[in-house]
């Protein structure tokens, strides 16, 4: 697989890039990094990534999936950062998953040549564009379909446009109350047969997303996820005679229940060597201190998880105290425009006099609310100008708020070794 193009190293930093130090303005990214920047130079609010923790997480997930006969095509929409996709590809991932055709088009500008679109393609404009991209014999692309109407829409445009080869399509199985996907095994099998009969589409397996069926580790949630994954295999077996010699996928796996995917898929993996049983987990590369920390099977809080094989949180927010209007209330200069909030409020890691300084604990302190540009900190003994370090929840809505994110060497260092560029 060709390396992704990394032209953002030549991109010039400007005052429009939130948090960038004043002295960096006008320099290219590479020129700035060559000066040995420190996190202490950046403006607050800021989110910093931890290089050592990301490398650790990548290694843990690669070893975990390999040991279970799974391949990993991580969901790139989590970060929309080609520099981080490259890290995932370098450690053995055979491709990247994306969510929209706009994201696929962006990824192609960087030379990404292996994409799973965990979604349907029905827009004639994007289908015409896709037909052109498939002229590249090295471009591997697979999308999903969950209805006969989806198949009809794809066929209509692809026949009118002309396509150099059939488009790989997985039938998507859903579940009642879930997200997209055929609502029954029988409906999914019918869709799969329809795809297999197409002159412009190719049946490439079974896809779906189990994460919509649960939000915790309750018995009911786990049972629903296991039943769904078992149904995926039923669909796959029913369509077995319709697959040709090309790639065939059975794919699931957000970042919450991938242990159940491995568990339920295990018997099929043992007897079926040609199918690519594929996880699409994306949040693992940075993990978090909130939602995924509470539900991931590779977090240190998960029962039975070995200490060396757990994810580490690799993203941290920093915000400055700008107001102390009441004895027990302080307001920070970062809010919903800067930090994720949809899957839980930030947690307090500590306080320092400024960015880059050692943190002191803030026992009893908590974040109780967030506005667009303020975070409400209660129970903290802090002074105006102090910087509060925040553990964040849900990386999927953290990266989209930033153009560049500084990467520090480790949690104990403020040496910036990279600027990760996002492309949302």
Automatic annotation (TrEMBL):
Point out the coiled-coil segments of this chain.
none
Q: Which SUPFAM superfamilies match?
A: PLP-binding barrel (SSF51419)
The residue ranges of the D-serine dehydratase-like domain are 314-409
Q: Which InterPro entries match?
A: D-amino_acid_metab_enzyme, D-ser_dehydrat-like_dom, D-ser_dehydrat-like_sf, PLP-binding_barrel
| Name by which UniProt lists this protein | D-serine dehydratase-like domain-containing protein
Species of the source: Microbacterium galbinum
**What's the source species' lineage?**
Bacteria, Bacillati, Actinomycetota, Actinomycetes, Micrococcales
């Amino acid at each position: 697989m060709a390396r992704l193009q990394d032209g953002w190293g030549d991109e010039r930093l400007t005052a429009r890039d939130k948090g960038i130090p004043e002295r960096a303005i006008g320099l290219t990214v590479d020129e700035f990094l060559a000066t040995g920047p420190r996190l202490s130079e950046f403006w607050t609010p800021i989110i910093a990534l931890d290089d050592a923790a990301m490398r650790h997480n990548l290694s843990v997930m690669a070893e975990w999936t390999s040991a279970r006969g799974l391949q990993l095509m991580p969901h790139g929409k989590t970060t929309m950062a080609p520099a981080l996709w490259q890290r995932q590809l370098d450690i053995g991932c055979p491709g990247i998953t994306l969510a929209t055709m706009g994201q696929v088009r962006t990824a192609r500008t960087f030379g990404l040549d292996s994409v799973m679109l965990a979604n349907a393609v029905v827009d004639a404009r994007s289908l015409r564009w896709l037909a052109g991209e498939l002229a590249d014999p090295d471009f591997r692309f697979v999308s999903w379909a969950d209805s006969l109407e989806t198949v009809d829409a794809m066929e209509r445009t692809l026949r009118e446009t002309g396509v150099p080869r059939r488009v790989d399509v997985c039938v998507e199985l859903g579940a009642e109350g879930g997200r997209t996907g055929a609502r029954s095994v029988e409906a999914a099998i019918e869709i799969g047969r329809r795809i297999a009969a197409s002159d412009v589409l190719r049946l490439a397996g079974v896809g779906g997303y189990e994460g919509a069926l649960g939000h915790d580790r309750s018995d009911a949630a786990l049972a629903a996820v296991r039943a769904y994954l078992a149904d995926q295999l039923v669909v796959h077996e029913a369509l077995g005679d319709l697959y040709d010699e090309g790639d065939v996928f059975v794919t699931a796996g957000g970042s919450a229940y991938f242990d159940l995917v491995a568990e339920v898929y295990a018997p099929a993996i043992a007897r079926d060597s040609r199918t690519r049983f594929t996880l699409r987990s994306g949040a693992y590369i940075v993990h978090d201190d909130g939602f995924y920390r509470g539900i991931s099977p590779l977090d240190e809080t998960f029962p039975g998880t070995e200490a060396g094989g757990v994810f580490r949180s690799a993203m941290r927010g920093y915000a400055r105290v700008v107001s102390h209007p009441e004895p027990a209330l302080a307001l920070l200069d970062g809010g919903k425009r800067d930090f994720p909030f949809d899957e839980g409020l930030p947690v307090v890691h500590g306080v320092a006099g400024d960015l880059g300084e050692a943190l002191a604990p803030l026992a009893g302190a908590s974040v109780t609310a967030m506005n667009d540009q303020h975070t409400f900190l209660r129970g903290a003994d802090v002074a105006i100008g102090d910087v509060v370090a925040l553990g964040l929840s849900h990386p999927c809505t953290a990266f989209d708020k930033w153009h560049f994110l500084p990467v520090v060497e480790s949690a104990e260092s403020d040496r910036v070794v990279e600027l990760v560029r996002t492309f949302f």
